Amino acid sequence: MAGLFTTLGSYPTAIFTALLGVVLIYWLLAIIGVVDFESSGIDVDLDTDADLHADGADLGTIASYVVAFGLNGVPFSIVVSLIVLISWFLTGMFALHVLPWIPTTLLKVIIGTGAIVVAFAASIPATARLVRPMRGLFVTHNARSNHSLVGQTCKVLTLEVNEGFGRAEVSERGAGLNIRIWAVAPNSLTKGSIARIVEYDEAGSRYLVEPEREL
After folding, report:
1. Range of the domain at 181
2. What's the pTM?
3. 131 shares a domain with 30
4. Distant-in-sequence contacts of 84-88, Cβ < 8 A, 24+ apart
5. CA-to-CA distance for 130 and 66, rounded, in angstroms?
6. I need a surface site. Which of 24, 101, 124, 191 has the fewest CB within 10 A?
7. pLDDT means per 10 residues in the chain (215 residues)?
8. Judgement on whether residues 92 and 194 belong to the same structural domain of the protein
9. How many domains does the chain have?
């Protein structure tokens, strides 16, 4: 066991052992709520031509590689963690089973450096395969807010609309959305009338409407 820890703490595995320690600290902070792992990512949609706005060109370059290698769709912290973990495992296996057969220290350093590069390169497609089934867990559904209906028209469903009562239907993406409405009395609103939503009342969870003016 002591030999195992010695190997994992020596070159080349030590590089990824240190990075793995940083990753473990990060996830510990995420568990206790100090950092938000979902916000620490590069949000890139593979199916759209996204405009990548960043503080510099480097972020756009990184994002393009993320898409090219199939690493998008999950928080970037997960991608980095998997790359480090896989690279650490591969270099660890190399250090345990291959490095002892290399005769000189110089050759060990040279071949060990090559092992770092190979392990990192191999970890990218492996990570892409692992994150693929995770993408569905991080799909963001943007619900429309109540205020987003302001300015739209609606069809009155009740026989009248006054300061305390009224219902209407708003056509929303092919489906009818039933909402509570009110209007200043007297008014001409009746069942089947077309009204325009002018304000949302947070306290009453209802919409102020007025008759739609004919052109």
Report:
1. 146-211
2. 0.58
3. yes
4. 84/16, 84/19, 84/20, 84/23, 84/123, 85/20, 85/23, 86/119, 86/122, 86/123, 86/126, 86/127, 87/16, 87/19, 87/116, 87/119, 87/120, 87/122, 87/123, 88/13, 88/16, 88/17, 88/19, 88/20
5. 14
6. 101
7. 73 93 91 65 43 47 66 86 95 90 90 94 93 78 70 91 90 78 91 93 90 72
8. no
9. 2
